[in-house]
Amino acid sequence: MAPEWRHRGLDLSKPSPARMYDYYLGGKDNFEVDRVAVEEMHRVIPELFQTARENRAFLGRAVRYIAGRGVRQFIDLGTGLPTQGNVHEIAQQVSGQARVVYVDHDPVVAAHGRALVAEDGSTTIIERDVRDPDEILGHPALKKLVDLREPVAVLFVAVLHFISDTEHAARIVQRFREVMAPGSYLVIAHGTRAAGTAAVSKMTETYDMATEKVSLRDPAEIVRFFDGFDLVEPGAVHLPWWHPEIEPHPEPHPTKWHFGGVARRPAD
Ligand SMILES: C[S@@+](CC[C@H](N)C(=O)[O-])C[C@H]1O[C@@H](n2cnc3c(N)ncnc32)[C@H](O)[C@@H]1O
After folding, report:
1. Per-block average pLDDT, block size 10, for the chain (268 residues)?
2. Residue 217's pLDDT is what?
3. pLDDT at 5
4. Is the CB of 55 under 6 A from ligand 1?
5. Is 54 near ligand 1, meaning CB less than 6 Å away?
6. Residue 169 CB coordination number (10 Å)
7. GO biological process: any one (predicted)?
8. What radius of gyration do the chain's Cα atoms show?
9. Distance from the CA of 156 to the center of ligand 1, in angstroms?
10. pLDDT at 195
11. Nearest Cα to 219, choosing from 249, 245, 257, 184?
């Protein structure tokens, strides 16, 4: 039987960020159009695949850190295709009580995600755009798993750079921040321009042809997304420098492509 997304008029003529990222990480859920775009970019950016692994490893360390501090509910915005170290796997290694709501607007991600959703009802996937925070927050599937009166972790890992207007991205994050209970954690990872002009231009041009454009930002713009929350040690940094002692550890020769951190909502 053809996968569900085949029936929905999906445009397979353009690369998609979710499938490109899957290819960066060595996955199999990608198409020729994605592989060609990525390989062309890889010729100009030799560290491309490593930067994706660095981002993914940060995600794992952040989830382990937060679950280790007693948080049992997670909202993972811009989930990506299932791969190694999915949020629910890491959180549930720390506590069998952990519950995870995945959100992604890519129908291929949603179809694969549904196959991963645990039968015990501790995880779910919602096919929505992060540009609709209220739809996500009011979604019955989210309300079933997440009690917003309790601390929650909200993850924006490698997704905000697909929102081209910085003010719009800031409003989206703010909407989530304002409904998070004291003791909640906000996780942000974001692509930067640190790699230099040629690499950044190549990446921007490639994503211009994809289903989503990319907008790399400077660390000062990224830090603003944490407004009102307290950054945990070591603050906002290039990702390989964030708690390298937690697993999965960074690789030798880290890059500065991605920047971010983890912040906690203080008591009112
Ligand atoms: C680079 S992947 C990151 C996956 C995962 N968060 C990680 O860091 O390992 C970006 C994901 O964000 C999703 N995405 C991009 N723009 C989005 C939007 N406006 N709403 C929901 N998901 C979005 C893409 O479909 C893709 O799956």
Report:
1. 48 92 95 97 97 98 98 98 91 96 94 80 95 98 97 98 98 98 98 92 97 96 98 98 97 96 95
2. 97
3. 46
4. yes
5. no
6. 25
7. methylation
8. 17
9. 8
10. 84
11. 257
In residues, how long is the chain?
A: 268
Candidate CATH numbers 1.10.3720.10, 1.10.1740.10, 3.40.50.150, 3.30.465.10; the one for domain 4-264: 3.40.50.150
pLDDT in tens, 15-34: 999 999 999 999 999 999 99
φ/ψ of 150, rounded to 5, equals -105, 155
Q: Which residue among 129, 159, 171, 216 has the greatest number of ligand 1 atoms within 8 angstroms of its CB, and so is best to mutate?
A: 159
Ligand 1 neighbour 60 (Cβ under 6 A): no
Strand partners, 190: 259
User: Are the C-beta atoms of 39 and 63 separated by less than 8 Å?
Assistant: no
Q: Which two tokens stand for residue 78?
A: 């811009």
For 184, residues 6+ apart whose C-beta sits below 8 A from its C-beta are: 71, 151, 152, 153, 154, 264, 265
Longest dimension (CA), the chain: 53
pLDDT of residue 119: 66
